[in-house]
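Box 3.1. Reading complex inputs
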Amino acid sequence: MRATEHDHDHQEVPSDLTLRVKALESLLVEKGLVDPAALDALIDTYEHKVGPRNGARVVARAWVDPAYKERLLTDATAAIGELGYTGGQGEHMIVVANGPRVHNLIVCTLCSCYPWPVLGLPPVWYKSAPYRSRAVIDPRGVLREFGLELPEDVEIRVWDSTAEVRYLVLPERPAGSEKLSEEELVALVTRDAMVGIAKVKLPQAGANL
Amino acid sequence: MNGVHDTGGMHGMGPIQYESNEPVFHEPWEARVFALNGAVRAWGKWTSDASRHAVERIPAPEYLRMSYYEQRLHALIELMVKSGLVTRAEVESGKLAPGSPKAVPALISGAVPGMVAKGKPASREVPVAPRFMVGQRVRARNIHPTGHTRLPTMKRGKLGTIHLHHGVYVFPDTNADSQDEKPQHLYSVWFAARELWGEQASERDAVYLDMWDDYLECA
């Protein structure tokens, strides 16, 4: 893995894309095929309303409420719906739980399937060929690139999203988090942990929670 | 189709490029392409399977060169032209064809929250018998459809075990082009990593794939 700040040298984006897309949008608006306000509303939804915070709430609830956790692991779509997260790219949900001997990893080798209602839109690395190609054949190497070294006796289960079923990882609750409130737990849960490329960690000693 | 989109198990794709604090969209045009796809899809002219197939049909060198949203822009234009929503000349000139009627948008902004929250379930309540049971050994069929399929090349011919039964779902291979849903049972199938990748893989690890009845045969 190569960490980048704002680096797109893996993709050549032609400079005329802005113009081409603007011209296409104008044409479609002129034809009455799209409402520009609907475009704004769709963008606003996924930039500001739907994102990994939703999934973090699902995970934290499962950590503090064993009955909820059981519902989540038996009928994830309904249990996630209880918290108000439903809809496109999350119509059929399965939640897979990590444990001391099991680690789950989510991928879509064929395109970019990802559970939008709980995680929002996928990051570039998740949609890119390097992750998609290697997550299935070398999950341990991929996790190592993300800084997660798993012992040999941990079983890795890779879930390739080949249908309309979407997967979410229920990470392990970190040791030492017993006294944290549900809201404090929400703040600990990351997108990466819910895809399975990281574990949930307590903040460094001295840091503000 | 045995396309370059079917990446699972390939080597040589380069390092994974992780970006800290990544924005949802990197450029405004990416956000517009995302939204245009959603808004035009509301016309119901094609299925999500057809959208995926349109991306897969991008010639391999182009597919690998293009960014994600460039691929989606390309696929959107192809599907709009094919379904008659626009003409190629309109896209290229940016101007309406003479005498072109003015439509009323299929998706207005007020309908966006409802559409997002509802989604479009792919499960179907139709009485078809499942061909397999949980725990049963199965083999992924060694087939090479030239159209859309969700059966990855590197899994074909491999032995697995039915892990979960999801229910009856639309079958993408037929739904992509002909909109023939051909509903059938869908399962999560367990494959030992060593069955797929040989001795180099850990004996503990596994890959789970969602597979329809038509992808499987008795082992």
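In summary: Chain B touches chain A through 96 residues (CB under 8 Å).
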